[in-house]
Design a protein that fits this description.
This protein has about 350 residues and is α+β, with helices and mostly antiparallel strands. About 40% of the residues lie in helices and about 30% in strands.
Length: about 350
């Protein structure tokens, strides 16, 4: 019995010891978690710094380092403008970096780094130095943001290089369109010329419109400031073209309905049966009749009769199902004149 009691005591001690070790391990993990999270965050921030260094080197490999290239290399966003100094060919960029650690206990880490590079004909080395974070503090007064005109000048240089490299396709896909503060509103190619309508940030909640024109015959790129509203003119042109195409589709349908109604009122009457037959015209699929389900060109919504005329409001579809449009038309049968007129309405009579 004594031996059995000793085994039980030893077993209990082993369990308690194991539990104590686990508790101590858990306490240690919790107490060191913030430090580990901080180390991971600093490691991620350092990787971001290294990527920025490599991107700056590649950007400076064509003999120049533009402001737009610096912004993309550093991943600049709102309020993150770096300090850029140019002395001769040497470019010095000072920028803040930050990374948020994972976990509720993790605090963000910050750093201030200075990059120095001399652009060359091949990717040059970029020196990186970490500075006290105060060196990246907001100067007094804060530097003015780059003017839209200065940004536009950089865009011209980048687009000119893209045009020389691979024509319009390279311009349309140029890296400059990924730069913070540069918003490509629209593009259009006409007669050997590519026009880019671009909105450039010009301060808090302000933008200006620039038009960049690349010409294939002369391999040139030019820019001109315009109004913000002008940056939407291609969109308006497309909307106008779509409206014209829709109107043409529906006018063709309504004209076909009028011809059927004209035939019906040739004798000065328009019975309900004749009206139904005139409006029973079915849509086709590329000229072929549809089989299996009705698809009328015109769906009457209301019919008003008087001794002299019959007025029909109807929803009108294109003659072919491949056309996408829908409109409201008034068909007015003048019984005494043996004629029919039509007009497109605002739609309230059909879609109220």
């Amino acid at each position: 019995m004594a031996q059995r009691g000793g085994c039980m005591l030893n077993g209990c001690l082993a369990v308690l010891t194991t539990a104590l070790v686990l508790v101590l391990f858990g306490v240690w993990r919790l107490s060191t978690a913030p430090g580990r999270a901080d180390d991971r965050a600093r490691h991620m921030m350092q990787e971001s710094v290294d990527r920025s260094r490599d991107r700056l080197s590649r950007a400076a490999g064509d003999g120049a380092l533009l402001g737009t290239e610096i912004d993309r290399s550093l991943g600049v966003g709102r309020g993150d403008e770096p300090e850029v100094r140019r002395r001769g060919r040497r470019v010095t960029v000072t920028s803040r970096f930050a990374h948020q650690g994972s976990g509720w206990y993790a605090a963000p880490v910050h750093g201030c780094y200075r990059f120095e590079v001399v652009p060359a004909s091949a990717p040059p080395p970029v020196s990186v130095h970490e500075l006290p974070y105060a060196a990246c503090g907001e100067p007094v007064p804060p530097p003015a943001p780059r003017s839209p005109a200065a940004v536009a000048a950089d865009v011209v240089v980048e687009l000119r290089a893209a045009l020389a490299r691979d024509g319009f396709l390279a311009v349309q896909r140029a890296e400059v369109w990924q730069t913070y503060g540069i918003h490509l509103a629209d593009q259009k190619v006409t007669d050997g010329r590519l026009t880019d309508l671009v909105l450039l940030d010009a301060g808090t909640n302000e933008q200006v419109c620039y038009e960049f024109r690349a010409r294939r015959d002369t391999d040139t790129v030019t820019s001109e400031q315009s109004t913000v509203d002008d940056c939407r003119r291609f969109q308006r042109e497309r909307e106008k073209q779509a409206e014209d195409e829709e109107r043409a589709l529906l006018d063709a349908s309504s004209a076909a309905i009028v011809r059927r109604l004209d035939h019906a009122v040739a004798d000065g009457t328009l019975t309900d049966a004749e009206l139904r037959r005139a409006l029973a015209m079915q849509q086709t699929d590329e000229g072929r009749e549809l089989v299996g389900y009705p698809s009328p060109v015109a769906v009457p919504v209301s019919v008003e009769r008087s001794p002299a005329e019959v007025v029909v409001f109807a929803r009108v579809n294109p003659l072919d199902t491949h056309g996408v449009a829908l409109g409201c038309y008034e068909f007015r049968a003048h019984l005494t004149k043996h004629s029919v007129t039509r007009r497109r309405t605002a739609g309230t009579e059909c879609f109220a």
